Amino acid sequence: MRLAFGLVLVSVLLSTACGGIVARKYEYEEEIFLALDGSASVYVNASVPALVALRGMNLPLDPAARLDRQVVREIYTSPVTEVANVTTSRRDGRRYVHLRVNVADIRKLGDAAPFAWSQYRYQDKDGLFEYSQTVQDSAGKEVGHIGWEGNELVAIRVHLPSKVEFHNSPSRTIERGNIIVWEQPFVQRQKGTPLELTVQMQTESILFRTLTLFGMMMVAAALTFAAAIWFVKSRKAT
Under 8 Å CB-to-CB from 136, ≥6 apart: which residues? Predict the structure, then answer.
């Protein structure tokens, strides 16, 4: 299962890189790669001011100040999460952090403090797998004037491992790679305006269905070839 999930993850990243897709810019983004077994890799991409304002983290707002990546790692490490890597960047005069966080059970992700503003649910419902997430209160911490213009966005981006049957994203679209995005104005997220996500998908992975179809085609081709050989031999015998 994890090998299949890894192959899907690699194919998605490669298709995105080769497709020339220009990603929208967000002040805070959770990018969730969900596996059918409920495990997930969560990529957090956020400005330091956003983490302070929304999650109340004790991080330096001054973009010239030293940002200790070990401190960021410790904030996101918990009994239910494992931090795979932490990197930083700069954009629009602000420092950004980028993390990959692994969780064995997406339903427990809210037990980790940085994700405690969300309820993560994953269940078998009417023969489908349903993933839902409710993002609620923010820390509402004041960060002063750091260059925000009022049009900043927050996003939850979910990569699904199987065919989607239903989702409630306002965009009504499923991006290439089986990706669905929910966006919210940053000012609404600061106020704690709830953001509701729901998606239902089939219980077999896209990779499994593809391999099954490929296997059936190979079997059909082999049977056709065998039938052709039998026909030729039978004609010679007569």
Answer: 117, 118, 119, 192, 194
Q: At residue 87, what is the residue type?
A: T
How far is C-alpha 128 from the chain's CA centre? 19
The Cα–Cα gap between 31 and 9 comes to 12
Residue that wins the pLDDT comparison between 23 and 58: 58
Residue pLDDT, tens place only, 75-102:
999 999 999 999 999 999 999 999 999 9
Average pLDDT, whole number, for the chain? 87
Q: Directed axis angle between helix 2-18 and helix 206-237, to 10°?
A: 100
Characterize 35-65 residue by residue with b for buried, 16 or more Cβ atoms within 10 angstroms of its Cβ, and e for exposed. Answer: bbebbbbbbbbbbbbbbbbbbebebeeebee
Cα torsion 87, 11, 196, 110: sign: negative
Would you kindly state where each structural domain of the chain is located, as residue ranges? 2-237
CA-CA distance, 33 to 5, in Å (whole number)? Answer: 9
Which SS3 state, helix, strand or coil, does residue 50 take?
helix
Please state, in angstroms and rounded to a whole number, the distance separating the CA atoms of residues 73 and 68: 9
Q: Kindly state the helix (H) or strand (E) to which residue 165 belongs, with its residue range.
A: strand 162-167
- The whole-number average pLDDT for the span 173-181 is 95
- β-strand 40-47 against 28-34: which pairing, if any? antiparallel
